[in-house]
From TrEMBL, chain A:
Organism of derivation: Microvirga puerhi
Ranges for domain Cytochrome c-type biogenesis protein H TPR: 151-266
Annotated localization: Cell envelope
Protein name, entry field: C-type cytochrome biogenesis protein CcmI
Keywords: Cytochrome c-type biogenesis, Repeat, TPR repeat
Domain of life (superkingdom): Bacteria
Gene3D superfamilies for the chain: Tetratricopeptide repeat domain
NCBIfam families, per the entry: cytochro_ccmI (TIGR03142)
Pfam family, one: TPR_CcmH_CycH
Automatic annotation (TrEMBL), chain B:
Extracellular compartment spans: 34-159
Organism per entry: Microvirga puerhi
Protein name: Cytochrome c-type biogenesis protein CcmE
Function: Heme chaperone required for the biogenesis of c-type cytochromes. Transiently binds heme delivered by CcmC and transfers the heme to apo-cytochromes in a process facilitated by CcmF and CcmH.
Keywords assigned: Cell membrane, Cytochrome c-type biogenesis, Heme, Iron, Membrane, Metal-binding, Signal-anchor, Transmembrane, Transmembrane helix
Superkingdom field: Bacteria
Membrane topology: Single-pass type II membrane protein
Protein residues bound to heme: H127, Y131
Keyword Disulfide bond tagged: no
Membrane side Cytoplasmic: residue ranges: 1-12
Subcellular location: Cell membrane; Membrane
HAMAP family for the chain: CcmE
UniProtKB/TrEMBL annotation, chain C:
Name the record gives this protein: Heme lyase CcmF/NrfE family subunit
PANTHER family: CYTOCHROME C ASSEMBLY PROTEIN-RELATED, CYTOCHROME C-TYPE BIOGENESIS PROTEIN CCMF
Location within or outside the cell: Cell inner membrane
Function: Required for the biogenesis of c-type cytochromes. Possible subunit of a heme lyase.
Upper classification of the organism: Bacteria, Pseudomonadati, Pseudomonadota, Alphaproteobacteria, Hyphomicrobiales
Amino acid sequence: MMIWVILMMMTALAVMAVLWPLSRAVAVAGQTDPNTQFYRDQIAEIDRDRERGTLLPEEAEAAKAEAARRLLRASGLKEGEAFAVGEPALRRRRAVSTLALSVLPIVALAIYGAYGSPHLLSEPPGAQLRQGAGNGAGNLDLGTAVAQIEAHLAKQPQDGRGWDVVAPVYLRMGRTEDAVKAYESALRYLGRDATRLANYGEALVISRDGMVTAEAQAAFQEALAIDNSSAKARLYLARAAEQDGQMAKAKAEYQAILSASPPDAPWRSFVQDQIARIDGNQGGPIQEVGERPDANAIAGMVQGLANRLDAQGGSPDEWARLMRSYVVLGQRDKAVAATKRAREALAQDAAGLRTIDAMAQDLKLTESSP
Amino acid sequence: MTRKIRTRKTRRLTLIAVAGCVLAVALGLVLYAMNDTIVFFNSPADVQAKNVAPGTRFRLGGLVKEGSVRRGDKQHVEFEVMDAQSSIHVQYQGLLPDLFREGQGIVAEGRLEASGLFRADTVLAKHDENYMPREVADALKRQGHWQGETHPPQQAQQN
Amino acid sequence: MLVEAGHFALALALGLSLIQFVVPLWGARANDPVLMSVAPTTALAVLACVGFAFLTLTYAYISSDFSVLNVVENSHSAKPLIYKISGVWGNHEGSMLLWVLILCLFGGVVALAKNTVPMRLQANTLAVQAAITVAFLLFILMTSNPFRRLVPAAAEGQDLNPLLQDPGLAIHPPLLYVGYVGFSISFAFACAALIDGRIDAVWARIVRPWTLAAWCFLTLGIAMGSYWAYYELGWGGWWFWDPVENASLMPWLAGTALVHSTVVMEKRDALKVWTILLAILTFSLSLLGTFLVRSGVLTSVHSFAVDPERGTFILGILVIFIGGSLALFAWRAPLLQQGGLFAPISREGALVVNNLFLASACATVFIGTLYPLALEVLTGDKISVGAPFFNATFLPLIVPLLLLLPLGQTLAWKRGNLLGTVQRLYAVFGASILVVLAVLAFTYGGPVLAPFGIGLGVYLVLGSFNEIVTRSWTRGKPLSVAWIKARGLPRSTWGTVFAHAGVGLVVLGISATAWDVESLGTMKPGDRIGAGPYQLRLERIVPRQEANYREDAALFRVDRNGRELGTVESMKRLYVTRGMPTTEAGILTFGLSQVYVSLGEMQPNGSVGVRLYYKPLVLLIWLGAVVMAFGGALSLTDRRLRIAAPARNRAAPPIAPVPAE
């Protein structure tokens, strides 16, 4: 509502700017005529020039006569111009006032109505919308924004920047497979630079629920080949070593990262935790690298993995990871159910069944146990 | 009085004559330069279709063929410029523009040799995030090869 | 909310401009001072509205309000503050808003010049000015609206084109626009004079400072843009005869002619009709430049046809204003009074020759810029008209002009004595020829034409200052007397001398490019490369990560004959958001010369392509332009140019009789 008052006040001020000179008396007519003034100045200058000796007396006389002639002509013109006064002038002024009062608001409102966004006036301002997009409450808006970008990309799939923008959003929304595809497109159209490759690898890792696959490893290695200072790529490669069971190598990598990174790097404490963890129990749940997602995000990822495995099936390792994730999250009943589904899905795969059994044993998830 | 009018007239005539001379010289220079210094733009398909004579200076535009870029020492570069129909082998020595890369559009200026090799002395890539020099984009559009970039390109460059 | 208020202010400015267009014209016709006095107040109100709109857009950029489409497309929250601000005009929509803001700013200054400009002239001028404002406000609101909103707001912006993230580009467009748009005032004054059917010396006296100010800014703007291209594009070139550059060169040439013809008109009351025509043509060329750059017609005739909205709109504006003003000229110019007489050999005659050559040179640039576009539209053939064309047409027209320049500057008004003038320049001729011979001998076997260029530059500089010497120094008198006399010369004389000497410096700088040395190489850390007397050693290549880009910086150590002179760094940058690579040239300045190094591609084996230039005296090119603009500014501060301000009675020392100036 406030904004409408402001807009009305602006309009009123604009109208005033037109009406104010109309309301003034004809005092303005008293202005000295610059034309005659100019020739007077010129004559004065000729006199000065003669005194200084830059003009010969006879030249000065001729110039002065010429200027004086022009001065006469100019003042003659001025006398001929009587300023309009009286009834017609009043009518004209009234017409102009009406014009200002009507045309100004109409033009301004019509143009603003046609090209502006007045509906936004009553809504919360843009800054709030933007903040909302970041957290859970803004998911709806984020969804529409993503839909818009998707519609744009459907028309112009070769717009690499669009893919680059949408990929991290997908990741945040838990659409990890889409994020991977988006990064692939961005890499194709914008080129393979280190940051993008590292982000791509990270998306791959998250989409495999934390597993640094060979594909992701290749991406990180390529990123490092371009820019060996990419902390993200090095962290994930360290983690890959850890996942491969090469604890010593992983630890060395982590320490190398630590020594290479500036004292205020945001990942320092995380890397120190990792080293401490390797030094300590050499086990425990592996956490996400980088910005550690909160419990909700983990739950979402686990749910994503479960959905995928239910729909498309998966490797024994992936099933095992799902079981383990449920246990970590404290959802033993779900873990038991997952074990059961895994056994059904891998019925043909003897080796796979053994993996599942081993994991179930590890986690004490045997069906016989209560 | 008549003398004054006559001087006014003769002076005006001199002025017009001098102006005419200068303008004639300018026109002559322009016509001469038009014959001599103007460079045509061709895509690889145009080069074949028009049978461009070897030794003619022209601008060659198209996409850098994927996997065709070979670098020698002393910054010798060889690559192929292609369009939908054909491709031409290009040799160049010097620094390539920032936006030169495989699969992107470029314009090379130079001469065609009898062997069919194009020896370029300038390689341009448009400073524009779409990586597409306009002649190349137009040529490819003519061939129905490229649909990208429908939003008006930004020319904030220098103005 | 603020953004919407800014948008509304723009709509309001449109309404106000309409009134500012209609009412003063009506008032001037009916000779009603009250109606005419509406012009200044509305002009100020329009300025307030457009200024407010511009501020709100700037605020949206600074606060990274990604609910504004324009901000999303051209900004990024991680961008440094200065580029957030310069991003406002680093794009089409914002730069058009800046264009209109400057237009209104000039209108506001005319509105405030109440006591110096005759009322009718002021009313008519502001009305013409308002017509231009209306056209461009409509253009902005309908086709290039910077206030379009994005619902819902984007999470992050797409960043400004990295090439534009540069301090040079932050100030280049405003300078250039002040130049372009400044000529709109000359145009508006010319149209006002035609509408009124009256033109006299006071007109020239009023118009001249405006034209001169616009010319100074345009000169600086072009120089700035040229220097930017030199160090940012990484090619070591400073002028490319690119259509975008030509678009600013054409108004500059016409504006230079205009600055000179207004002198004739002010001093001698001659060349009136031509001056009016030139004022119209100069602004028309500014409009044409805006059209070429803003419609996308240069980027692609094709894209112009596909997205015709903007292009056709500006084309419409172009046709209406150029066609309209020329029609007005054809209709009213015969009514104007004949000007004064002068002999062909006189200062006026020399200035006519100046105008003639500048206009012809401008015409060749015009043809070279537009011919390819016309040909493409007509036959579909694509040609490129580049440096060879302009070297073959532009230079032969400019060189005679430069040769005549010191002569014209020395000639007397009304009736000159050619022989006497030449005699006064004997020393200058002699010195210049000596310089040519010395340079030829010194650089034997090098470029042949360049020494003559150097000679021409020296001739221009000396020829300009010769005026001061001959007017203040007499044989046998001590130098201190000459100095006092020289200081007593009017500032407009000094301005002329500096501006012309600036031209000479530019010629020197350009001629010296013939001695540029270029070397290419692929280098690993520890390798050496040389150019001219300088040797560079690649020390190391360091990767770096900044807020919005990543770069590989190569550090070079520079020495000359084994003596170490310092280090220079050249960078290969990648702007992450746009995925766009750029090269940052490393430049080390020694006096007026520079060593310029730029990086090529990083090779997989750790080596890097390097292009190295030694550019002797290259800084003179831009320094000369700055000196030219300084001369213009000096001339502006001369009291005699300020309108109706009573001339100061300075106790001037007696001066030997010289031609009236």
